[in-house]
Amino acid sequence: MSRLRILFAGVFHWNAGSSHMVAEYARAAEILGCEVGVSSQLSRLDGVVDAHLPVVADLAWATHLVLVFEGGQFLSEGQRELCDTVPRHRRIVLDPDGHWGPLVTLGADNSGGPDAPQNWHQVYSELSSLILQPKIDGALPEGAEFFSYFGMPDIRSIPTAMPDVARMPYELQYVGANWWRWTAMTDLVQAAAAARPALTRIRVCGRWWTGAPHPEHVTATSNKQGWLEEQGVTVAPPVPFGQVVAQMAQGAITPILARPLLAELRLLTPRMFETMASGSMLAIPRGLGYLTSLYGDDVAPFLLGEDPSSQLARMLREPGSYRRRLAFIQERLYHRFNYRQVLGELLKLIA
Known about the structure:
Layout (H helix, E strand, L loop, with lengths): L4 E5 L1 E2 L4 H16 L2 E5 L4 E2 L9 E2 L7 E5 L8 H6 L8 E4 L10 E2 L2 E2 L6 H11 L3 E3 L10 E3 L23 E6 L6 H13 L7 E4 L21 H4 L3 E3 L7 H5 L2 E5 L4 H5 L6 H8 L2 E3 L8 H4 L12 H10 L1 H19 L1 H12 L1
Parallel strand pairs: 1-3, 1-6, 2-4, 3-5, 6-7, 7-10, 10-11, 12-13, 12-15, 13-14, 15-16
Antiparallel strand pairs: 8-9
């Protein structure tokens, strides 16, 4: 086969995690001797992210096609037929939201989303025989194989080189949208307020933390309008494309929040790697204990337990010991999940 040319298709917006992943893959491809592109014929692009991604107009360019299904099924019937331009054995389905497998329901959320499980299975099976899922802990659904998909960007800051907490802009900061995360955020803000001394320099960057929720996803993006501001939290817009890790580095502590359903399924998310690359101290809420499978048992002090207020206060009071431990985890994680390594694993899977 000639030089590998991997074409991704999905819903790629400037403030979505997968857009950052593909941009990282494109940079890693230059080193690994292959090429990565994004299909304009099959993808949904927002007109902004296009300038940051290697958009390809012709499916015939590709030797392999990777279809990334997140919230909903994005391909029309005509686009699914167009996928036949690339032979079936060179097509791969990526399933980062856990649509493949038995239906899992958690409160108002479920793994099918707007589509029934049988529809997901039918679409996936028609498109490819290789279904990849970033499930880090526990058995994979029958017919799926593990692939992390998400990787760790280049390290922005080594934790032990971070500034003194008093000189950092924020004691606690979260960068990301409110997508099934409101309860986790309010719990964290209340714990920060109850700490002694209380954490007062707090910022949240992202959509739907205040004001009207998304009109098509009211439950997933619901919030109590103005509540964060009443607690003294600074609410800011989403950060520009490519600046997520740099913005995270402005906070002494950065929580890792995940959609509860994804936590129930033990799936990886971009923030689990980006936060580590920032050098900021982690705060991992209950429900994400499975991240010991990713970070190792050394991450235990960053898991919030029965008394999160005291833990947050201790992290700010004794940052040196936490940062030394975190630097060790950061180095190990980057060695295993840097994007050259992750893309190399994808190349082995499709070889």
